[in-house]
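Quick entry between incubations.
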Amino acid sequence: MAHDNIDLSTLTRNELLVFEALKESDSPMKAYDVLDVLKSHGVRAPMTVYRALEGLEEKGIVHKLDALNAFVLCSHDRPHQVQSFLVCSECGMVQEISPELREAPQVEDKILGVVRATGFQMREARLEMKGICQKCTGKQSAHNTAAE
Amino acid sequence: MAHDNIDLSTLTRNELLVFEALKESDSPMKAYDVLDVLKSHGVRAPMTVYRALEGLEEKGIVHKLDALNAFVLCSHDRPHQVQSFLVCSECGMVQEISPELREAPQVEDKILGVVRATGFQMREARLEMKGICQKCTGKQSAHNTAAE
DNA sequence: TTTACTGGATTATGATATAACATTGATATA
DNA sequence: TATATCAATGTTATATCATAATCCAGTAAA
Ligand SMILES: [Zn+2]
Ligand SMILES: [Zn+2]
Ligand SMILES: [Zn+2]
Ligand SMILES: [Zn+2]
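Done. Structure below.
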């Protein structure tokens, strides 16, 4: 797991709390869901959570899924410019495309190439792909065996 | 201009009003900015705007920029699965990467290839790239001629 | 005319995010 | 020690973004 590589000593107390909350969760969390978890640790205000999330994002430990207003731990070993996610509209599953997937770097390269050609200085990019995950596709074809 | 190709007769009255508002604007608009414009046409409630925006999105005429909570007219000739935007953090400029840019389809192909390999049925994807646009880069290097 | 449907209006409320300012505690240094 | 400084945190209030729920108007079958 990528999270074993993180140097937790660089995190503030609140960042650590948020990190733990996200680590426990098997899906992206909304800021106010994080807040609910942290209430048992004495955190009362949204600001606290948003500040911690911002810090974690800057450290490359957390990504925000803009289409969902939700946050996930990065599954990579190191910070990276291009973040890619599969989001299932059926079950809510979110999967960050990992570098282990051999083709992923090619996508990143292509993107960087195109952008460079336009003279744009890219700092960060997020690719959010919506659709139906493999698991949910299987379920559906059980109902409806004919091709679409 | 791509917008000349759109069949406006398929739009409802409110969709048309929102379309016109976005066409007038030279940058993405927030829903409540659209509402302000439409007040002069008797529109009073956010719902009206959001409904129209949703309709326009479904018709492929408008895209939502999730990172900005803002909406823009599509600059393509026809609906497309992968939407790519450059967003300048300095001046707010947003540019949809157009099919005229020769490399753009390659990015789309790469993305589709990778996703297919995972068994994910992609319906739609949005790539939002943040950084500094060419214009703003020029301004900065005027101040600071040395390399970064 | 009745029915069903689509689009639209209204009201209220929910969900997401930030501004602005006060407090704390650790560290440096005079 | 006193005190300046700074980063992190706490607190309150408010801004911004989005939807639920319900009703109404027009229109096109039946
Ligand atoms: Zn990541
Ligand atoms: Zn699924
Ligand atoms: Zn487009
Ligand atoms: Zn710019």
